[in-house]
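Final report, Chapter 2: Outcomes

The project's central promise was a pipeline that accepts a single protein chain and returns its three-dimensional structure in a standardized token representation, suitable for archiving and comparison. That pipeline is now operational. To close this chapter, we reproduce one record exactly as it appears in the project archive, with the input sequence first and the structure output second.
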Amino acid sequence: MEAMEIGVVETDRLSLVPLAVGHADEMAEVLSDPALHAFIGGVPFSPQALRARYERLVAGAPHPSETWWNWVIRLRGEECLAGTVQATITADERGCAAEVAWVVGTPWQGRGIATEAARALVTWLSGHGVRGIRAHIHPDHQASAAVAAAAGLAPTGHWHDGEIRWELPAAR
């Protein structure tokens, strides 16, 4: 999976653009609302801290069986960034699996952006041979659960660190 270039993923309204360190300043503003951390914990990163985090992400996963793919969500009609989507890919003898996540800044929520981006991410991953697509969602985070369902994921009975695992059902 490491050799594959992630590239830009286009939807009707969005461009999922591969993450770059240069996105940090704008993304620090997009992700500045403390409410975004209600379910995941922590606090918003400063532009400097987010730049350092993006430097680590762009450098790639330290473990050879893992690949980090990260995109910023560009809302083309407004020519601005609105959030991120990400996939942590793991490979083993059964193939590749992905842990996915998304976040959309508070000013852009409620407009279907997270749903559109998550659907595009799941479709792109599936189209590139990734199986076992999953997300972990806090049981009280109804908005994220709705996004996961719209992207084709379904809740399972498995829990991890207080979150429910959602998975893309196996193709029949």
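Archive annotation: The chain has one domain: 9-167.
This record, like all others produced under the grant, will remain available to the consortium after the project formally closes.
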